[in-house]
Write a structure and sequence with these properties.
The chain has 307 residues and is α/β, with parallel strands linked by helices. α3 packs across α4 and α8 packs across α10. It starts with 5 loop residues before the first strand and ends in an 8-residue tail after the last helix. Bound molecules: adenosine-5'-triphosphate. The site of adenosine-5'-triphosphate has 11 residues, from β2 and α1. Keywords: Antibiotic resistance, ATP-binding, Cell membrane, Membrane, Nucleotide-binding, Translocase, Transport. GO terms for molecular function: ATP binding; ATP hydrolysis activity. It is a peripheral membrane protein.
Amino acid sequence: MSTPAIVVRDLVRAYGSVRAVDGLSFTVDEGEIFALLGPNGAGKTTTVEILEGYRDRDGGEVSVLGFDPATGGTAYRERIGIVLQSAGFEEEFTVRELVRLQVSLYPRRHDPDELIDLVELGDKRNVRVKALSGGQRRRLDLALGLAGAPGLLFLDEPTTGFDPAARRRAWVLIERLRGLGTTILLTTHYLEEAQRLADRVAVLVAGRLVALSSPEGLRAEGRLPTVISFELPAGATLGGLPALTGPPEAEAGGRTVRVRTHSPLADTGRLTAWALDAGLDLPDLAVEPPTLEDAYLALTGEADDGG
Ligand SMILES: Nc1ncnc2c1ncn2[C@@H]1O[C@H](COP(=O)(O)OP(=O)(O)OP(=O)(O)O)[C@@H](O)[C@H]1O
């Protein structure tokens, strides 16, 4: 087993009477994409800033790439990459000038042009920063965060504000970084992003860890039901449906029926057999297993009961 890239033990950080981080422990393996999730105010930014060396801690142990970030100084900062949400850019610089400048600050460097190609800004190389779109700027953020060829990258909500196509392209790029062996600590509010990218996910609530698992593990541990839904066929009533393990619920005022079940195969079989026997269709029949978002909402107590 390789040495973990990040070790956090019993980390505590308080602001007055608020314990923003309240006894947090986890490790991140080398080469892993590790996502920190949690509602607003859960302590993600505080944790990440402590790991980056930009915030003091009140208690606990932290080791990142073998350094204590609190005392690692420049030697430590040169080893990590940080992609901030909105770095203040020199608007008059071109993309190439800015990336070259950033690269020159580090002893271990990427080739500026390769970096620009990696983030797919090759055709914007000589364009001034002020003329970039929001999504292109975020890709430039990423190039700047990678300037020192870091072994560890902190990615703070990397796709906030991206359109869906740009988000998917960013995911491919992040996966490419993983392929290069970069360890990534990711914070995000997009559960689909965590599901797609993260090897493991930590869920924080009020400064404490409430779950730590692979996205699949988290879904499975939630023991949430699969939802079968369909339109009630014309002439059929809720009471006329076959016996199912989960009671069918009709949407208020509509004809959509939902069955929450832990035996989706058996219940779907009963429903379709019943419909076929009766010569009925089940319009919009769908069988949806719980998503990471469902598991997350249940864990953080944020599930909305409205269905
Ligand atoms: N500089 C500060 N002074 C006082 N309280 C702070 C400070 N920074 C954060 N806090 C408090 O610490 C708690 C955790 O904040 P933090 O920013 O770490 O949460 P977060 O999980 O990153 O939230 P978000 O998803 O909104 O970014 C919150 O209650 C917040 O109000």
